[in-house]
Amino acid sequence: MTILVRDLRPTDPADLEAFVRVRRAALPFMIATPEITGFELAGAHPDKRYRLLVAETAEGEVIGTAQVGFAYESPEPGRSFANTYVHPDRRGLGAGTALLRTAEAYLAAEGATELFVWVLDEPANRAFAERHGYRAGRSAHFLRLDLAHAALPPVPELPAGVELRPASAFAADPRPLFTADAETTADEPSDVGTELDDYQDWLRSTWNHPALDKELTVVALVDGEVAAFTAAHTDGAGRYASAMTGTRRAHRGRGLAKLAKAASLHRARAAGYTEAFTGNDSGNGPMLAINEWFGYEICAAETRYAKRLAGSSEA
């Protein structure tokens, strides 16, 4: 079958819908909407060199997608990513290979030295990555919580000096949240480290992200200073996702992240959300334990594969 790979047409509502349709089918445990897709492409940092690719049949049916770019926030230059997904009903037609080859050629031409791809942890997917020369790295889990029926634990009692506020309380000056996000993100276990040091980029890509629900994003303050937080993404159609949960180093071990997330989940349920999703690196024991306490259950797993690109010093 003939497969054509091209860039997403961001001004075409039908193309955005087709991209999201494939993403939802391949990754039902992640939030995807046309608005989010268009926003992330239009607002991407220039150093990200971000492209959204689609694979379509000769008849014009979009059957695969890829998110391609540079990990520009990594302290190690030359690291890039290409996350490709094919509609489950259209696998085996060559869309995944066509997308990956296009992504590799683009990134190599742009100077990338190493390419990382997330692969759903299924035998066929792992074999696909290994056939294309990728090696397995860290693994992660997707988790789901039935907010409509789960017996959520109550919000723990607030310790002395601790208060909870929604992110909307920081609308006039969100910099304290940026500082907390930067510190906690730097400590996340990952194959690709991240350093958040551009406040304006954070405002554009994180604070103003259309999925960020500033009322359900909950911040724990200790004596008036941001100590922990949980960021909530929602799709307005019953689905809630934890975008990031973390505690600043000086306040760890006090249960503040659990406190913030408990408050957020209870608020999400009261607001009518019925499904909650999150993702955890398999080595992040503390966060996995917190999510198990809430009643989350693992619904899928993925592995990050990596490959040196042709022309790099280790290729």
UniProtKB/TrEMBL annotation:
Stretches assigned to the N-acetyltransferase domain: 3-159, 162-315
Span of the signal peptide: none
Molecular-function annotations in GO: acyltransferase activity, transferring groups other than amino-acyl groups
Domain of life: Bacteria
Entries under CDD domains matching the protein: NAT_SF (cd04301)
Keyword Acyltransferase: yes
Identification of the protein by name: GNAT family N-acetyltransferase
Organism whose genome encodes this protein: Streptomyces venezuelae
